[in-house]
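Hey,

The postdoc asked me to send both predictions to you directly instead of through the lab channel. I've kept everything plain text so nothing gets mangled by the mail client. Protein one:
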Amino acid sequence: MNVLIVGSGGREHAIAYCVAKSPKADKIYCVPGNAGIAQIAECAPIGAMEFDKIVAFAKKKDIDLVIVGMDDPLVGGLVDALEAEGIRTFGPRKNAAILEGSKAFSKDLMKKYNIPTAAYENFTDPDKALDYLKTAKMPVVLKADGLALGKGVLICNTLEEAKEGVKTIMLDKKFGSAGNEMVIEEFMVGREVSVLSFVDGNTIKTMTSAQDHKRAGDGDTGLNTGGMGTFSPSPFYTKEVEDFCNKYIYQATVDAMKAEGRPFKGVIFFGLMLTEAGPKVLEYNARFGDPEAQVVLPRMKNDILEVVEACIDGTLDQVDLQFEDNAAVCVVLASDGYPVKYEKGIPIHGLEKFDDADGYYCFHAGTKENDGQIVTNGGRVLGITAKGKDLKEARANAYAATEWVEFANKYMRHDIGKAIDDAM
């Protein structure tokens, strides 16, 4: 079949890598893609939010299946636009993608259906939010309601910080219209775990666990980013935790969306906090995580196209989802200055070293080709991923592979998964 992938990051490169391994795939396309994806797919310079152009491109290329990787087009209704033209598409429709598109909606859903999460209140009036904070226990978490590239969450340790946070989100509009509404929730203590899942509207099949590192600097310091690295699996995601989540979180979420008349087909990303009182939902995403996809998908044994089609057709219950008994670590190579200000267009060297390296992957995030030379084109440039028999070996392999690649303003964290190394 002819497959079209929508997106331009490391997540979409990981998806394209898996699609390319499928015997079902004939021709692979990507819009807009990047320099890495262009090595396995035909890319076209169409933006992910240019719905009319994407639909026209899919028709012109006789696309049999579209996989939408990014959050913005999902929340904006790209799946609806493609399905309206009879084009099979993997991802939630607009009325289901609201699970990620509105934190206020998702918190209200969890409250209504008794899905464990942090206590919270929603606000559209900054003055009422400030009044509420006077009686709130610190620290608190402030969340912009809408999409904010994974950066619209502020942890505030004092009342003064919280007041400044309300100003940042609701008055200064640092995250744009995403801050028109805001969630204030209790600060939860525990270990974070990410669990991605395939969903067909009724059935849910969870993937192997992972853990992201959001902060820009070592020791979880600095600004929030889209993710500086990740590892899989999480040793803290035990059978006991999984059983609890299966019973009270995963299926409950799928059933809740169906009951609300918003059946969800695609990927639900569960951001979990393992608290003393049990696992609770930090957030939902309506797509593969980035960089979580870079460590989860290479460990999946299944043909991704078979799983994706089962989600579309409502036959996911017939799929035996399996993952390799090993580990993977992804270290993001970023442009120095990310996530604030950084240069682009810097030549990247050493990428050819990954061509024949078994168990090592270089997923492109912010790259483009310029006169035959691959150059940097974003804050997060590459996701260097490696497998190993356990997390310690995978981590050592990934960091060794980061030395294969050079560009002038290369920056990375040096402690991805280190806390796990130290704990084991």
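Protein two:
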Amino acid sequence: MSSFAASSAGHPVSPESAAALQALSPLDGRYQRQVGALRDHLSEFGLIRSRVRVEIEWLRQLSRAGFAELPPLTAAQDAALMGLGQQFSLADAQWIKDTEKTTNHDVKAVEYWLKAQLDAIGGLAQAKEFVHFACTSEDINNTSHALMLGEARSQVLLPAMDGVLRRLAAMAQTHAAQPMLSRTHGQTASPTTVGKEIANVLVRLMDARQQFASVALLAKMNGAVGNYNAHLSAWPDFDWEAFSRQVVEQGLGLAFNPYTIQIEPHDYMARLFDALARFNTILIDFSRDVWGYISLGYFKQKLKDGEVGSSTMPHKVNPIDFENAEGNLGLANALLGHLSAKLPISRWQRDLTDSTVLRNMGVALGYSLLALASLDKGLAKLELNAAALDADLDSAWEVLAEPIQTVMRRHGLPEPYEQLKAYTRGKPMTRELMQGFVNDPQLALPEADKARLLAMTPAAYVGQAQALAQRAASEALALLDGQSAGR
């Protein structure tokens, strides 16, 4: 009997639940909890806050440039200015959004907000017109987008990637010695170990992770078309390029791009999104393989009270975490592919087609993060079914035809492949059949080699798989430990 209430009465809907139930994107509805860590960085709030941070840093650096018209900030003024960015709130963002309704310009609304805050600090009336001085909106936007991506990468995506990588490394170590029948073209092939197959994926992912982590985040602060036109009209003898480099590199922690049109051309974004898509593609491959191994019975899934696998078949425990991961990785890669292909293209010195596309960075990265969460959850539920693996191997004695003919070749015996084919054709490939071939007095092999082949089983024929799995896992964990310490 079901214990669930018969009526929906007594189930009030909170504003948060209503918003989730009515959300167009499942990232803001069904899956909002799993991707919530990205909101501070890649949401509209995150963009506005980053713009505020950039405007503040530009003003701080200008105050130190030695211009007589802009006296240096006092320590208290500088601390107060920095505090505006550090304590920036949803209410502040709403003030800016409300102002944008009048200005119809998002960056100008940020400028007006910051000028209003300077009035409250005191003693900065002379500094107000140096807010956004000589800047074009893209000086603020491109640096903001780089900051947003940098924070999302370092604080959210890389930790989520590393969590999955650590789990895979642990699995590779734990199952390094567990033999497993390989399947090439879907057919039985030389055995491996479970740990080695996981290690293969781990090594690929570690390389892709490094590519993603190492993409430099570029930014520019060089005016309307990249030539410091307005800057030089005010102070023609000042080294504006060196100053802009200082703001970008020292003030904001980004890499400086000295050659741009009005926009930073987004080539680094394409590299970043392509690197993430490569990581995701490897995970799609892995998700499908694990799905298949669950289907073969190599893995069982831990049960959770109350969960239902099928609305009509009570026995089912479906591999939904890996299916969800595969689907969300596909969505992420479709969006990442469009971002990568579109963003480096701009008509003449700029058009606005990049602006609306950039607002979807959070969606692309959100689906990637959601997939990582599904994978981590699915991997945590896996339990190795050694009995199924061993039974599969024990029914595949044909895989020993490879080592038998290889040893025969070593000793120069004629046509080993053809001899095995003639001996086994039309017969069940059993232990007795394979060992009968080796035991045949006509087979002119040294007795020591015969004894070694007779002692061999499919489960023992795994080559260096165990050692390779352990080595790959140890190397990956050492790299991950070093990267965690460096973050």
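Summary for protein two, as requested: Residues 392-460 form a domain with the Ribonucleotide Reductase Protein R1; domain 1 fold (CATH 1.10.40.30).

Thanks,
C.
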